[in-house]
Amino acid sequence: MVARRTDTDGRRAAVVAGVGSCLPARTVPNEELAARLDTSDAWIRSRTGIARRHVAAPGTATSDLAVGAGARALKSSGEPAVDAVLVATTTPDRPCPATAPLVAARLGMTGAAAHDVSAVCTGFVYALASAAGLILADVAERVLVIGAETFSTLLDPGDRSTSVIFGDGAGAVVLRSGTAGEPGALGPFDLGSDGESEALITVPAGGSRQRLSGVPPRPGEEFFTMSGKEVFRHAVRRMTGSAKAVLARAGWTAEDVDHMVGHQANSRITQHVAEGIGLPPQRCFSNIAEVGNTAAASIPLALDQAHAKGVLRPGQRVLLTAFGGGLTWGSTVLTWPRLDPS
C-alpha cells in the first residue's frame, strides 16, 4: 500500500466539515408490499437486497427532510450558517421555485445563495462538484450540500418493479474552505452523461415536452419508469469506469481504498462495481437493506450512518461513486476527517 500523506500542499480545496441525515418515521417492510403486489419478501431481497424502506407521511415534503438533514450537518460542523445551500433532488416541493431557497430560509440563512441540482441518483455527487467549484472560485467559504428525496411521490403503487426499490430520506454534508491534502478535502471528480439513453430512467409526463405535444398524457405516464435490465448494465459499467478514472486522477489504487460508499441502487450492482474495481465486499458500505434506494439522498445518508456507526474512521480513504437518470454518473474521493456526531 502507498504511504499515506498527512501534510497539505497549500492549494485551496473543499473540505468535509459535517454530516447529517433525516429519515421519515414510517417504515414499510417487504411484507407490507408483498400483501398488495405479486411478490414476496424473498423475491425482493434476492433481487435488490432491500428489506424495508422509509416513506414520508402525508403533509411531509422534500424540503422538510432536507431541513432536518441540513440542521444536523450544520450541528456536526460546529457552525450555524453557510454562504450557499445546494439541494440535489428529483422530487422538489414544486416545479417552480427551486427547493433550496426555502431550505436555506428555514435554516435561518435567508440571503445565502441557494439552488437545486437535478441529476437524479447522481445528484449529490454533481452537487458536491458544484459546491467545490464555489469554494475554489472564492465565491463561498462554506456550503451546505443536501441530497433529499420523497421518491414515493413518483411511484406507481401497482408497479412491482419500482415500488419495492425506492424510499424517502435526506442526507447532507457541510463543506468548508481548506487546503488540498488535509483530512476531508475532496479530491478530483469524474462526471459524465449520456442523454441518448434518457428514456431508460424517466417520468414521461409533466414536463414541457409532454405538455407542448398537444397530446394528453396516457394513464400512468405521471409515474417513474425504469428499464431495469438495461439500467443495471449501464450502472455497473459507468460506475466502474468512473471510479477507476477518479482513482487514477487521485493517484490511488484499489488497495488504497478503505471504503467505497456508492449510490445505494441495488446490492448486486454494488457487488459488481466492487469486483470491477478490485475491492473486497467488506470495503463497500451498504445500508440499502434498511432504507432502499433513496436516489440523490443515498450517498450522504450512507455517509452519515457509516460515520455514526464508526465504520468510517479518521484517516481512512473513501471512494464515492454514483449513477442515475440522464443518464448521469460521477465519482470523487476523500480522506475521512474527524467529525462531531450529527
From TrEMBL:
Active site: C121, H263, N293
InterPro entries tied to this protein: ACP_syn_III_C (IPR013747), ACP_syn_III_N (IPR013751), FabH (IPR004655), Thiolase-like (IPR016039)
One cellular-component annotation, GO: cytoplasm
Gene3D superfamilies linked to this entry: 3.40.47.10
Catalytic activity: malonyl-[ACP] + acetyl-CoA + H(+) = 3-oxobutanoyl-[ACP] + CO2 + CoA
Beta-ketoacyl-[acyl-carrier-protein] synthase III C-terminal domain residues: 247-336
Taxonomy, superkingdom: Bacteria
GO molecular function terms attached to this record: 3-oxoacyl-[acyl-carrier-protein] synthase activity; beta-ketoacyl-acyl-carrier-protein synthase III activity
Location relative to the cell: Cytoplasm
Primary localisation category: cytoplasm
Stretches assigned to the Beta-ketoacyl-[acyl-carrier-protein] synthase III N-terminal domain: 116-195
Pathway assignment: Lipid metabolism; fatty acid biosynthesis
Record keywords: Acyltransferase, Cytoplasm, Fatty acid biosynthesis, Fatty acid metabolism, Lipid biosynthesis, Lipid metabolism, Multifunctional enzyme, Transferase
HAMAP family reported in the protein's UniProt record: FabH
Written domain comment of the UniProt record: The last Arg residue of the ACP-binding site is essential for the weak association between ACP/AcpP and FabH.
Protein name: Beta-ketoacyl-[acyl-carrier-protein] synthase III
